[in-house]
Write a structure and sequence with these properties.
Elements: E1 5-10, H1 14-24, E2 29-34, H2 37-46, E3 49-55, H3 63-72, E4 81-85, H4 91-100, E5 104-107, H5 112-218, H6 225-256, E6 265-268, H7 269-287, E7 290-296, E8 300-305, H8 307-323, E9 329-336, E10 346-352, H9 359-363, H10 374-380, H11 386-396, E11 400-407, E12 411-418, E13 424-425, H12 431-443, E14 455-459, H13 463-474, E15 479-483, H14 486-495, E16 500-504, H15 512-521, E17 528-532, H16 537-546, E18 550-553, H17 558-568
Parallel strand pairs: 1-2, 1-3, 3-4, 4-5, 7-9, 14-15, 14-16, 16-17, 17-18
Antiparallel strand pairs: 6-8, 8-13, 9-10, 10-12, 11-12
The structure holds adenosine-5'-diphosphate (ADP).
The site of adenosine-5'-diphosphate has 22 residues, from α8, α10 and α11.
Length: about 575
């Protein structure tokens, strides 16, 4: 339904109003009538009108004044005004009407069709204007809505960006902190490594210098036999120290890098104690120190541990106790710990009556290359690595090494703890039991091995090494033949059935691995023992993988070499199976 449009008619004569209303009431318009300009203005307050038809001559406020009032009002100034004038009106009035803002004028008596047509035009204009205004408002509204949406979107995006930035910033902060920490760690590791290398080269250089210096002195033909023996002894002692330093460094690097393979086996505790007694008693006797092994309470007959490593730890701690004790005794006590409900540990307490260690020295005792008293090192040798290695090894075996107490000048007590693993118990062992075992071990202790008649092919490209090993073998009665590389070894083995082949690994032309693989491939089944420069687990494993029967680590120690040969030699009744 079309909306009714208001038309305002103003005339002081009601009859005129009625007449006008009668031909304007078409159904499309609602005609509002006022008998004065004042009333008209009041009606306009509440009603929007499309057009105003007003008489000119009216009392109080005539048509011109009414038009002026309308033009002065912002809300009303756009409404078209049609003046209704008498036929007698002066021309000047008409001009005045246009001047004030009338859009048209009609002369009375009014022609209904003319009035209707003119009003229809203004109503049409009004409708169009209202439509345009409505559309404009709608466009404006939708633009505003769009703007508001865009603004909200922008705010949302801004908030998101802010949040992402905060995250990012936090991550950058964290990453920076991580990187800084990693760098600090790497720097500290690098400093520690440099210090370690500096210490290591110093430790190596000292005995090396002695070896070189005394070797030069040995060249003097005028030396007395005593001087010669002293120099040789010095060279030997320093050579042994060098060898110990290198194997300790290797051990330390393995434990520090975590590449340490622990070989847990069920072993007899009595056997371990016997071996220790056998190995330490001589050292103690040489110094005139009493060494005793005591046990407290029940001890497990078998423990599950790496016997070799446990002995290495205890040898080092007991060895130190003997080394740093001038007179008195070293006592080794073994017991099971009984701390609450936790699984019991095996505890070794090594007490001596020696030099003792000051609190300052104790604080740095378990750091690499730390030696409390350098003059002692000069006197007894030592690498300053034993304690740190022992501690790490004991930790690998489920325990620790600690300095329990020490009084400078009166002695020290070190405690070695290990996890005994599954353990089967023995009856109480009296202190004497251990000593008995020690005595029995001492009775069968190191005897010279003779291997008379054994034939060995020694394959090595180093003439120094060849000379040394040949000497070690010949003095034990072994018949030695030589080859300089793997190829020569193959040729010789094909010509002669040696009892054992001793094979170096790194050689020109054909190395030890290649030669062994080739020999095993052609069905050679006699023992081939590798001479390796590295005591590394990987080297050991690759030796066995290539077909070697065993391996010996350089520097070659004569008793170790002879024991290995005896182990791999053909069975009795050959003379080399007998120990004299
Ligand atoms: P080293 O090979 O020099 O003995 P260690 O790491 O075994 O290396 O020992 C480090 C140092 O600790 C020794 O040089 C010595 O000064 C001190 N030390 C170790 N054990 C004892 C002990 N029982 N009595 C006195 N000092 C000891």
């Amino acid at each position: 339904m079309t909306e009714l449009i208001n038309i305002l008619i103003v005339d002081d004569k009601p009859t005129n109003l009625v007449a006008l209303e009668s031909f304007l009431c078409t159904g499309d318009y609602r005609v509002l009538s006022a008998t004065s300009a004042i009333e008209a203005l009041r009606l306009l307050e509440a009603n929007e009108c499309a057009v105003i038809l007003t008489d000119v001559m009216m009392p109080e406020m005539d048509g011109f004044e009414f038009a002026k009032a309308l033009k002065a009002d912002m809300r009303l100034r756009e409404i078209p005004i049609i003046f209704l004038t008498a036929m007698t009106s002066e021309v000047i009035d008409i001009y005045r009407a246009y001047e004030i803002g009338a859009v048209d004028y009609l002369q009375k008596p009014l022609e209904p069709e003319v009035v209707k047509a003119k009003v229809a035009v203004f109503v049409q204009l009004f409708r169009q204007r209202r439509l345009i205004k409505h559309q404009a408002v709608q466009i404006l509204e939708s633009e505003r809505r769009e703007q508001r949406f865009k603004f909200t979107e922008l705010q949302r995006k801004e908030a998101m960006t802010r949040k992402i930035n905060e995250e990012l910033e936090r991550r950058v902060d964290e990453r920076t902190r991580e990187l800084t920490a990693a760098k600090e760690l790497a720097d500290a590791a690098s400093v520690a490594k440099s210090t370690f290398l500096a210490n290591m080269s110093h430790e190596i250089r000292t005995p090396l210098g002695v070896v070189l210096g005394f070797s030069e002195l040995m060249a003097n033909p005028d030396l007395t036999s005593e001087e010669r023996a002293t120099y040789l002894g010095t060279i030997k002692r320093n050579g042994e120290l060098l060898s110990k330093i290198i194997s300790d460094i290797l051990d330390l690097s393995k434990v520090e890098s975590g590449q340490f393979a622990i070989d847990l086996q069920e072993v007899s505790l009595a056997n371990i104690l016997s071996d220790l007694t056998a190995l330490c008693t001589l050292q103690a006797q040489e110094k005139g120190i009493e060494l005793s092994f005591l046990s407290e309470g029940k001890l497990p007959a078998k423990i599950r541990t790496d016997a070799l490593r446990l002995k290495q730890i205890l040898l080092n701690i007991i060895g130190n106790a003997i080394k740093f004790t001038g007179e008195g005794c070293v006592e080794v006590k073994v017991r099971q710990s009984s701390e609450g409900r936790s699984p019991s540990k095996l505890v070794f307490e090594i007490a001596d009556t020696g030099l003792g260690i000051s609190p300052e020295q104790a604080a740095k005792l378990f750091e690499p290359f730390v030696q409390a008293d350098e003059s002692m090192t000069r006197k007894y040798g030592g690498t300053g690595l034993g304690l740190v290695i022992s501690k790490r090894l004991a930790q690998f075996l489920g325990g620790d090494v600690t300095l329990t107490e020490s009084v400078p000048g009166f002695g020290s007590t070190f405690t070695v703890v290990v996890d005994p693993g599954i353990a089967s118990m023995t009856e109480d062992t009296s202190p004497d039991d251990c000593s008995d075992v020690a005595q029995s071990i001492l009775a069968v202790a190191p005897a010279e091995v003779r291997l008379d008649g054994l034939t060995v092919l020694l394959v090595d490209d180093s003439s120094d090494n060849t000379l040394l090993v040949t000497h070690m073998l010949r003095t034990a009665g072994v018949a030695v033949d030589l080859a300089e590389n793997g190829q020569e070894a193959l040729d010789k083995v094909h010509q002669h059935p040696y009892d054992i082949v001793l094979m170096d690994l790194q050689m020109p032309i054909m190395n030890g691995y290649e030669a062994t693989v080739a020999l095993r491939k052609e069905g050679y089944h006699l023992p081939i023992i590798a001479l390796t420069a590295h005591a590394l687990k990987e080297v050991e494993e690759s030796c066995y993988a290539a077909g070697f029967s065993d391996h010996i680590t350089k520097p070659i120690v004569r008793p170790v070499l002879l024991r290995a040969l005896r182990q791999h030699a053909p069975p009795a009744p050959e003379p080399w199976s007998r120990a004299i």
